Amino acid sequence: MSITTSTPTIQEVAARFHALAQQEKWFEIQDEFFSEDIQSIEPPTATHLQSASGKAAVRRKAEDWVKRITDFHRGATTAPVIGGDFFAVGREMEITVAGIGRLQSNQIMLYEVKDGLIIREQFFY
Asked: N or C, which terminus of the chain has less Cβ within 10 Å?
């Protein structure tokens, strides 16, 4: 008896992403959906975060940022909007970061999906 698994559609990836994002389970999203060659793109004007390539480097980037957060005041993520091989969500967050202070962030997070995995994330803020 063989078990076949099908590649998740973009709708399935976006729905699962949304479910995990509502629970603030960002590392679980990375574990489940990020490809080994993921590209994480920050805006050219970003002062606190840099772009990263590869699953391990993107994970380190996220872990290093989370370690600096001293207080999470609030966060909310919108439902995904899907177009072609992409989906986008809106993200609002208010946090206190060591060495920076209290920050309010309103951003759009864009994800590109190929073969059921996220191959690129890009942030607009």
From this structure: N
